Amino acid sequence: MKEVFEIGLNLIRKIEETQSENLEASGILIAHAFMNGHQFFVSGSGHSHTVTEEFYGRAGGLAFVKPILTSELTLTEHPTKSSYLERLNGYASILAELYHISKDDVVLIASNSGRNAYPVELAIESKKRGAKVIAITNINHSSQVTSRHESGLLLKDIADIVIDNCGVIGDSALQLEGMNAGMCPTSSMANSFIVQAINVACGQELLKNGVQPPVFVSLNCDGNEDVNDKLFKKYTRVY
């Protein structure tokens, strides 16, 4: 148990030491897109879809986030369905069209390996449309695998800002004696801190420019229902 805590705490410290500049730059980029009337999209597939949920619709989170969170990219329908779909060339371009990704928008894409067709293609399509791309990925892992997208590119090769989740190859950071497979995957731990750091950096930049950050509050505190309803009405996408 001590090792689990050591792994998690060391991971967060490493992110703080090595990624703070990119985290702040991401928040500033998102803030200025919002102030200039552009959109902020977030997406990921498989377990990386949880980054989208960490950004969207939760207390303390920015209300203007636009989630690209289709059920087939998650594990809700079948445990391996998303693994097949994220390897398909052509699927991300459909979603880029359906969600109207446009010039000067910001698209944040999470992918631990950064190799599958979906995140790579979404990054390429977003850049083609004139949007800026932020990637959350595992540089250690991504640097030692080949792309599954027809371009041969990895997510880290395309993004304007690359945030390293500082994980190990295969994500699982703890090897128990007598086991062949590792345990304690760190990407989820890392991603939660990364998301909140970006949120706060964005909020700080908005305040610096005289803009009150639109932030959701907890519905489990009395009297808050109207706050979130107004934010959803103003910012939730309607396609």
From TrEMBL:
<feature type="domain" description="SIS">
    <location>
        <begin position="30"/>
        <end position="204"/>
    </location>
</feature>
<protein>
    <submittedName>
        <fullName>SIS domain-containing protein</fullName>
    </submittedName>
</protein>
<dbReference type="InterPro" id="IPR046348">
    <property type="entry name" value="SIS_dom_sf"/>
</dbReference>
<dbReference type="GO" id="GO:0097367">
    <property type="term" value="F:carbohydrate derivative binding"/>
</dbReference>
<dbReference type="InterPro" id="IPR035472">
    <property type="entry name" value="RpiR-like_SIS"/>
</dbReference>
<dbReference type="InterPro" id="IPR050099">
    <property type="entry name" value="SIS_GmhA/DiaA_subfam"/>
</dbReference>
<dbReference type="InterPro" id="IPR001347">
    <property type="entry name" value="SIS_dom"/>
</dbReference>
<dbReference type="Pfam" id="PF13580">
    <property type="entry name" value="SIS_2"/>
</dbReference>
<dbReference type="GO" id="GO:1901135">
    <property type="term" value="P:carbohydrate derivative metabolic process"/>
</dbReference>
